[in-house]
Amino acid sequence: MSWLAGYYLRLHDLLRHGPRAVVPGWDEAVAAVRTLAVTTRLVLTTQLGHALMVPLLVEEATGRRTLPIVHDRNPLVRTMYEERLRLGEPLLLTRLGAGDIRRWLASDAVIVANPDTCYPGTRHTRDLPVLGGRLTVPTGLPALAALAALAARRNLETRAMAVPDVAGRITPRVGPPLPGAVDAAVGAYGAWLDRCVSAAPEQWMAWGSLHHANV
């Protein structure tokens, strides 16, 4: 819990001063994302390391509008993105609709979604093998199913991304392009997530959705 408290204190600093002032290795992280994600239009992130930095990194690295999907219950996160993203318009998960999707498709914006957390009311889920256990992911959410399917139909690149801490500096991990079919994309995401989390399990927060794990 002390690690989590420190994480959110750092977010408060980020609100006041910006990432370069409080996040070691920020410029190197931006450069790493720039070399890998300039063609990406949909990013699936995970609660690994500095997960809330992903939209900020993607926006700076690509120079494009970034639309993070956030839950209504995360007022600090929503405020952070409104303060720090150029156009400051995070998408609310519970209100995500056709207008938001059309706006994304009609632009060169990048959507950042976190599919490894099942929010209250999620009905369509699937279990992925992670760390010797099973992680429940919300395959029915637009963030994963509808958006992944749309990206595939439009030949838009989808990637997974995490930002663990290595030796006190944030070090982005960007996966290869995910397959277009939703089932294949979910499987590939699970395999990538297992590799990332296995390398830094102490930095991962599953928020209670991982069960029967042998860790």
Question: What can you tell me about this protein's structure?
Answer:
This protein has 215 residues and is α/β, with parallel strands linked by helices. 40% of the residues lie in helices and 21% in strands. It contains eight helices and eleven strands. It has helices spanning 2-17, 19-22, 26-37, 54-62, 75-84, 98-105, 145-153, 182-199; strands spanning 40-49, 66-70, 91-92, 110-113, 126-130, 133-137, 157-163, 165-166, 169-170, 173-174, 210-211. The strands form three sheets. It has a six-stranded mixed β-sheet with strand order 3-2-4-1-7-10, sandwiched between helices. A hairpin with a 2-residue loop joins strand 5 and strand 6. The longest helix has 18 residues, at 182-199. The mean pLDDT is 81.
How is this fold's topology laid out?
Blueprint: H1 2-17, H2 19-22, H3 26-37, E1 40-49, H4 54-62, E2 66-70, H5 75-84, E3 91-92, H6 98-105, E4 110-113, E5 126-130, E6 133-137, H7 145-153, E7 157-163, E8 165-166, E9 169-170, E10 173-174, H8 182-199, E11 210-211
Parallel strand pairs: 1-4, 1-7, 2-3, 2-4
Antiparallel strand pairs: 5-6, 6-11, 7-10, 8-9
Helix pairs in contact: 1-5, 3-4
